[in-house]
Amino acid sequence: MDDLLEKLIKQIEPLALDIVMLDAQDIPGLGNALQYIESMEALSEELQEQSITPLIKAMKGYIEKVILGEKTDLSPVEKSVTKLQEICRDIINGRQPQKNILPILSELGYGTGTEPTESDMDEEIEIDIEDLEDEDGNKTGEGKKEEISEETRSTFDEDDREIIADFVAESLENLDKIEIKLVDLEQDPGDLDAINDIFRPFHTVKGVSGFLNFNKINKLSHTAENLLDKTRNGQITIVGEIVDIVLETVDALKRMIENIQASLNSGQPSEGDMDTSQIISKIEYILSQAELGENKHLGEILVEKGTISQDDLSDALEAQKTVQEKKIGEILVEQNKSEPKDVLFALREQKKSAKQFVDFKTKVDTGKLDNIVDMVGELAIAQSMLRQHDNIKASTNRELDQIINQLNLIISGLQKTAMSLRMVPIKNTFQKMLRLVRDLSKKANKEVQLLMSGEDTEIDRNMVEEIYEPMVHMVRNSIDHGLESFEERSLVNKPGHGTIYLRAYHKGGDFVIEIADDGRGLNRDKILKKAISKGLIKENEKLSDGEINNLIFKPGFSTAEKITDISGRGVGMDVVKNIIVDKLRGRVEAQSNDGKGTTFFIRLPLTLAIVDGMIVKIGEEKYILPTLSIQESFRPKKSDCHTVKGKGEVIMFRNNLVPLIRLNRLFVRNGGQHASDTQPWEKLVVVVENQGRTRCLLVDELLGQEEVVIKSLGETLKDLKGIAGGAILGDGRVGLILDIAGVFDIASEGH
User: Which residues are annotated as catalytic?
Assistant: First the structure.
């Protein structure tokens, strides 16, 4: 006995230290804690101390919930460890250990005599939680309740009168709260917090009533809990009928708990003879209808993952017919067909699959949403004009300055919130690629796997649909041109199956999508020959690797030797460039390593409604250059400015000669503004990049960086080359937002 206790204490001490520093996201740390608890569980069963065993089992179940992501609060585990230490100290000092562990067990969600809810979801798969024993060593779990004699009940109630009184008081208080929340929930059926606030009291009533052997209360609250779990998982919609049945359940529970309160002093607390079968039948009927929409079963997931065979599943299902109260996961573990951790991971996947159907968001008409965003944009413009008004700038009133600054903060926060309403995860677009890769790989007779990351990264919802087509073209080209056949890969010691990677992330204020493959890479020699034959470049023209790579985005360009069902007509990558660059104001570039694969980078602004730009002055006009395209700005030295015959002016930038574009000559007409042209070294140069092309833009002055609200120029001017739109600046004037690709094209055409 003493040896066992000493071993148990040695396990508790490191657990107590770890649990204080443990975080709910620390899966390895939680795994270590679970190992300690499992060792303690084995020792406690040998020790046969009835206050210790259920507490350790409850801790184990709770930690597994945290690993599954169902719980995030680790404070109940901390309390449990402290309680275990107290019990062990009592035993060591020869005192009778304190038995009031029911409140902590309730916090841990450890109930007996009931099936677990969908929320508890089989967290007890490999744990027999029905092994609690009373003081005489009798089972108190399900299947044994009806055998508990009135004498045993009476003795138990005498010992735990205070616990029962607390249960009555807390339960009545919780049921009152449920009624209030139900009224709120009927007004807003999508309020997930309200559903959880209703679910938790039922869960507590169920758990504690199970310990106290109030069977009717336990069964009714458990059935209601199942119903609520279906509602919060999105499998049942909250309607008036659901609210009515929950209210009816609350009334029945109140009456039974009040009966316990009235009979408490008799020494034999009783729930009364109330018939709850009709209410339970109503709830079970609703649940049976919801079963039609259930997702994949646990066994199916395990078979798909290769953890078990179909024969193993069939044997377990056959065994379940004789032991219906056991979950399939529990049976598989008992039969040594599956490890507990594999079942836990399958359960987590099952949960995630179910959550895909949850939609507790309020639906708003997109037109109304766009109007809100537009009005917030107008408000931001008005605030900018106010801030730059001459009277405000000249004011020395400190109180006015404070008000203006406060207004700036509020409008900035409002603008960010309004823009966030337009943001949605890229997940759905990524997931569509799974089917595409599967179908295309079969057509190409190649083995291809798709790996994704960053699916929850958010992007402007107006971009989500637009980006789908470019991604389809790029994935198609990766499968057809990039990835080798099984035989080719084997010859160069590559895995037989090719891999395509989809990644999404935010970087430097941009939304970035990477589409990569581990194939043969781009054949630059072949690309150059094709480009020369098509007249896209001159034969003696020297291009960097990046410029050669970007030739694949030229109209009609294709290196495919034959047209297939997948690609080869030279129309795909041109579409990619047009949509990403022209329509979405983004950039696309390719990087390739011979024999190792190709990666395409799509860089997009986070939203189409606002552009982060550098305001520049050219003559008397102000223009906005998107910061996405800007590399650097500087005043060139006279020695860095050159004129190349037939090429125009160039600036030496990082040991390269970069063509110079005088913006005043492109956009100022009939006013003779450029008649007073000065030398480049007397002004400023902004280096910009687009599609692998780099140019220097000559400007008079840099006025600062600012986020501006994009305004359309209307139908008449919407296709104006070199101009992407307009913005109202702080001084009330309109600044034109430059389209860098268009500016390059105008300059190259000699306009």
Answer: 203, 225, 477
